[in-house]
Each structure stands twice: as C-alpha cells, then as structure tokens.
Amino acid sequence: MYRIEVEDLNVYFDEAHILKDINLKIPKNTVTALIGPSGCGKSTFIRTLNRMNDVISGFRHEGHVYLDGKDIYDPDMDVVELRKKVGMVFQKPNPFPKSIFENVAYGLRVHGYDDRDFIEERVEESLRAAALWDEVKDKLDKSALGLSGGQQQRLCIARTIAIEPEVILMDEPCSALDPISTTKIEDLIHKLKNDYTIIIVTHNMQQATRVSKYTAFFLHGEIVESGLTEQIFIEPRDKRTEDYITGRFG
Amino acid sequence: MSFRIISPKTSQKIMTGIFWASGIVTVLILLIIIGYILMKGLPAVNLEFLLSEPVDSGRAGGIAPMIVSSLYVTLLAGIIATPLGVGAAVYMTEYATEERIVKLIKFGAETLASIPSIVFGLFGLSFFVVFLGLGWSILSGGLVLALMALPTIFQVAQVSVETVPQSYREGSLALGATKWETIYRVVIPAAIPGITTGVILGMARAISEAAAVMFVVGSALSMPVSIFDPGRPLPLHLYVLATEGISLKNAYGTAAVLVIIVLLITVLTNTLVDRYRRKMMGR
Amino acid sequence: MISKAREKLIEKGLFITAIFSIIAILLIIVFIFREGFPIFQGYGVTNFIFGMDWAPSDGKYGIFTMIVGSLYITFLSLAIAVPLSILCAIFMAEVSPEIMRRILKPVIETLAAIPSVVYGFFGLIILVPFIRSSLGGTGFGLLTASLILTVMIMPTIISVSEDALRSVPLEYKEASLALGATQWQTIRKVIFPAALPGIITSIILGMGRAIGETLAVIMVAGNVTQIPSSILDPVRALTSNIALEMGYATGLHYSALFGTAIILFFVIMALLVVANYFHYKKKIVIGGGYL
C-alpha cells in the first residue's frame, strides 16, 4: 500500500536542525507533491530518501525511513542498491558530457549489464518512455550537451528510468525550464505515475495541483499538513497552509 | 586638484605607445631566435640527417640515435609520471579530506617543481645510476625525467579534475554508482582534455632537458636498443656539439630539429584542447 | 560491481601516488646530503662557503665567487626581465586588441617551450660576438648570461602576471572608468595594485628559474671563478660549476660538487623566503581594502 514510510525523522547538519519530527507515508504508484516556501527543508527531505545527504559533511539523522518495510539507514543496507531502486532527477539538468546514448546507458553499465543488444533495447525503451525518442533517434551518438534544456531534463529522466527504479524523486525538475518544456515534463509525469512512485518537490502550486494526487506542505522543517491534493488546496485544515496557498507568504 | 606635470591624456598616449612596444619586442625576440636557427639549421636537415648515425664524433653524419634516445627517454618519463600525477590529482581532489594532507601534497609538488635540473641530475647519478645500479642508461634518464615531469602533470591534472562540475558526480551517485566508479567513468573522462595537456606539457619539459640527464644517460653516440643502453638525447647532443666546437653545421641542424619539435608540440596542444572542447560542448 | 573492500584498496593506492612527490623529495635530500657530507666534514663549512679560491687540483674548494656569480646573474636578469614582462602582460591583458593577443599567447607559449640549450646555443653564436664587437671584452660574461636568462624567464613572468591581471574583477575597472579616469590611470591605480600578489608570484617563479638554469648560462658566461667587477667580466654560477666539473671529479672534488648543490638549495630557499615575505605583505595590504 505504502512504498515509503517516514517515521519521526529529524535531520541535522552539524548544529542546525533542518527537519523536525517528519512523519509521512508515500503511497505506491502515485505522485506526491512537496510544497512550501524556499529553504524549509523540502530538498533536504527528498535527498534523505535516497541517502544523497550522506555525501554532505555534518549530516546526522534520527528516526526511520522505510522502503518496502526496510529502514534504508540500516547498516547492512547497500546504498548502491538503494539508489538503483530510488532514482533522482535534479533541479538543473545534469547530463554527462557524453553522447545521448551513453548517458542513458550509464546506469545500466554501472550496475553490471554489458550485453550490447540488451543495452540498446533498454536505451530505446527509456527514451520512448521519456517522450524523447523521436527527437533524438537519429543523433544518439551526439553529445548530450547539445540538447536544449527541456530535452536535457527529459534525457535525465530517461537515464533514471533505464535502471527501472521503483521510486523517482524529482527536485523541482521544471524550475530551470521554459513553460513549453514544463508542460512536456508534466505530461511525462502523468504517463509515468502508473508504473512508478513519484515524489516531486515544487515551488509551483499550480503544478502541484496538475500532477499530484497527494501533497505535503513543509514549513520551517516540519510538515504542517498532508493529504489528498484536492483537499489541501480546496479545504486546508491548517491556517498556515491556507495562507501559503493563497499567497499571503511564500 | 593635484598638480600634474603631464596631463592624463598625454600620459595615456605615451603609455599606450610603450605597451605596444613591449608587445612587439616580445614577438620580435621570438621571431629572431626561431627565425635565425631555422634559417641556418634547416639546410642541414634532410632525411639523411635524420636517419643516419653520427660519424667522427658528430663532425659528420646524422642524429638518428639522438632522436631515438629522446623519444625513448621522453616516453618512459611520460609512462611513469602520468599515472602518478593523475593518481595524486584524483586523490587530492576526490578523497583527501584533511587540510594537512592536502597542504602536504601541494607542498611536495611545488618543491619538486622548483628543484633545479642539475640537482635532479646529481640525484639521478647517485641514486639511479650508482645506488640502484641501473648504470648510465635510458632507464635512468627516463626515471629522472619522470620526476621532473611529475609536478607539471600533477598540477594541470589537479585543476582539470577540480573543475569537473559537481553535478556530474551527483548525477552518477544518484544512479547508484560507487565513488570510484564515478571517478573512473565520469570525472576522469570529463577531465581528459586538461589531463592530456598536462601530460604533453610534462613530456615537453622532459624532451627539452639536458642538464638533468647529462650525467645519467651516458652520452653515447651509438643507437640505443634496450632501455639499459646508454643514449644521448637531442638537447645533450646540441650542447656537446656546440661547446666542444665539433660541428657548427650539425649543431644548427640539431637545434633546428629541436625547435621544430617544440613548435609541433605547441600547435598540437592547442588544437587538441580546442577540438575536444568543441566536441564536448555539442557544437 | 565493486565491493567496499576494493574501494578502500583503490583509495590507499591513490594515497601512495599522492605522497610520491614527498617520498621523492626526501630521497633527493638524503642522497645529495649523503654525497655532499664529506666536503663539509673534511674541508669545513665556512671554508667552503666563504672561500674565495676554487682550485680542486690544489685542494681548494671555496665557492663564494660562485654564490656571488649566481646572485648577480639572477638579479641582473630580473632587473631587465621584470619591467619588460610586466609591460607586456599589461599590454596583453588590457591594451592589445584581440588579434594581437591571439598572436602573443602562442608566441609566449612557444618561447616557454624552447629548450634551454637552444637559447644557450643562440647566445653563443649570436649574442657573444655581438657584445664583443659592440661593447668590447670577450663577449662571454655577466651581461650576456643575464640577457639570455632574461629571454628565458620572460614567458613565465608574462603568463602568470597576465592571468593575475585578467582576474581582477571587472567591477573595479568599470568603476574607475565611470569616474572619468583614463585607461592608464585605471591600470596604474586600480588594476595593477589589485593584481600585485599574482605578479609577485610570477617574479618568484622567474627568479627560481633563473637561479636554477645551468647549460644556457655555461655557454655564454665565461665560467671564470672570480667575482666580476663589471658586467662584461666572465662569471661562474653555482649550477655551472657542477655541470662543468662533474664529468671528471673524484673523491673530495666529487663531494664538493654535491656540496655546491646543497648550498644552491639553501640559496634558493633563502630567496624564496624573502620573496614570499614580500608577497605576503602585499597580500595583507590588498586584503585590508587598500588599493
């Protein structure tokens, strides 16, 4: 029923207490949006879910993050396997300075797949799934850095789904893109949600209403309110939620 | 309002003239030196000169063994110094966390870079030739030159690795790659243009050296076959020909060959870097 | 797939390559000192450093004339090279049109790459006769050596200074021009002082190269072991001493040459300390907001 369950999570960077008593359940195969003003911990939270915060010095946590029932911070949890299951798309598209083909194939190679035919098949599937295949099928060996911003971001999505994760984390994936690319990516999210559990951090509240089924509102490192997107936006239970949504601050 | 002897407008004009003069003088210096050597030296350089062995201590004949010595010794230096330099650069940028270690490594590279070539020569003599018993040989020469090329390769590689965008590393880690896999599959490939430049610069330093190898490589006129044979790289040959007054003509020829090699290396480095950069930017 | 153990092993391996240069330096120090020790022990440190007579066949090993020789050559070449190089660097960074700069950059790189023997050769063939005919003397001497060294260290000073000048923030320049200053005033009052730490670094590097240069100097300096009384007099540098006599030195003579290298080490260290002191001082002043 729930893919990820976060229990009493507290996150510290050295002395700074960034996330406070976070409790959240993420249902399978849906899109959950995380909204809230800048700097209130949404990115930190999402990076905790695939242990990307491990690379930042001073990171400390208390509490539990369960993926399919297992705490991802267990000492015997393999971080490499975790990141295969929980993929991430970053705010600023970051394709490797390699060809389009090699970008998508990268994850496969790193996880030990080396059969040429298999890789080619998977690359095509992923590019199709990311709605990018038709635009790049004739130039797979050209550098990925020659693509437009929107295309690069879809490439990063293709790269992530090539290794068939169960969860996709998206940290403001459209904030560096133009409106048309944004629409394309939102359409993509609609397509993907049937097969993946998606968690998306967004500044754009309209985007949250357009793509997500569930929403959690973060403020000063805490979750003020969470639930069905419809309910949060139409009938928020907490006054702070209402103030944020109606633009009284943000 | 201060009293000025010359108005700012006038001093601007004067200084502009002086600046232009300095730029032109610099270009002229290069043109004179290279021009003169090529002018006097190129006539002596022909296929026979490049492919035949010296006759009568170099009074006549060619410089083939010297070219081979130079190639041998430079390649050896490159093969030894590159993994060390790149490894050190990678360690310093990707793994070293303690400030102390970083400072120590930097200090090591800088100090090594400032040791005069003749001191390397003395070390080579007492350590490689005598202590390790490698004798006067291409091998000893290559080892000494590797030490000299190492700081150059390290410094350039270090900058290249450092400037690889952090987003590449994050993208790789997020896909489940390990740290070393990320370095080996993403960071180093992205830093290749810089690393290559560093290696070429390091090897250019090696190929120009005479003082460091003069007491290490043996100064033989014969063609070196194995790396245990003695040899005589081009710069050393030029030095001997010139200072012992053996053959002015052949000295010019050797100098011209050296100058051409250097010009080729400079052009090569520049075009390589340009081309790779353009390819990676997707244009 | 890579295991954690293998990752650790790779890290250790890379660590070894990283401290390789330290190991090398230690080895160098050990071996040079080992070979040089006999001369200090057998001849005496003061006699060695301050002795005015260098005559190995008579058992005399005083290197003072050569210490002076090295210092003279270095400072004379710096005196000529530094102003010319800084002017050229300013030209490239601030004054020259883009085309000129595109020509100059490869020119500097090529000058830097030319082997020192080639410079020495050029000096021997062209400069020596020229000085002999225009200024008198043998043509071999302090002046000739300094001129050749000047050309050799200019590329270093120019390229590092140019980088320093270019990295001065554009805002400073714009502010000055907006206030009605001329380009030269802006350079003199704002850009140059801001780039000064970097320029001093370039001079230090040039100095290091000058004092360490061996063969180019030998070919044109005359190599007589005396303190020169005019710039046309011949002179012998510490580096030249080693290179000239190593081929046939044995016993105490052999050790004396290693001893020369040790003294060279110390002279370089001393120069670096003094130069870095100035560099540090300038940096403090600039950092404090003074321009």
Automatic annotation (TrEMBL), chain A:
SMART domains: AAA (SM00382). PROSITE patterns: ABC_TRANSPORTER_1, ABC_TRANSPORTER_2. GO terms for biological process: phosphate ion transmembrane transport. It comes from the Archaea. GO terms for cellular component: plasma membrane. Keywords: ATP-binding, Cell membrane, Membrane, Nucleotide-binding, Phosphate transport, Translocase, Transport. It holds the Pfam family ABC_tran. Residues 4-245 form the ABC transporter domain. GO terms for molecular function: ATP binding; ATP hydrolysis activity; phosphate transmembrane transporter activity. InterPro entries: AAA+_ATPase, ABC_transporter-like_ATP-bd, ABC_transporter-like_CS, P-loop_NTPase, PstB-like. It is a peripheral membrane protein. It is found in: Cell inner membrane. This is Phosphate ABC transporter ATP-binding protein (PhoT family). It comes from Methanothermobacter defluvii. The lineage of its organism: Archaea, Methanobacteriati, Methanobacteriota, Methanomada group, Methanobacteria.
Automatic annotation (TrEMBL), chain B:
The keyword Transport applies. GO terms for biological process: phosphate ion transmembrane transport. Residues 67-273 form the ABC transmembrane type-1 domain. GO terms for cellular component: plasma membrane. It is a multi-pass membrane protein. Its main location: membrane. It is found in: Cell membrane. InterPro entries: MetI-like, MetI-like_sf, Phosphate_PstA. SUPFAM superfamilies: MetI-like. Keywords: Cell membrane, Membrane, Transmembrane, Transmembrane helix, Transport. PROSITE patterns: ABC_TM1. The chain crosses the membrane at residues 18-39, 71-91, 112-139, 183-204, 211-231, 251-273. GO terms for molecular function: phosphate transmembrane transporter activity. Belongs to the binding-protein-dependent transport system permease family. CysTW subfamily. This is Phosphate transport system permease protein PstA. The gene is pstA.
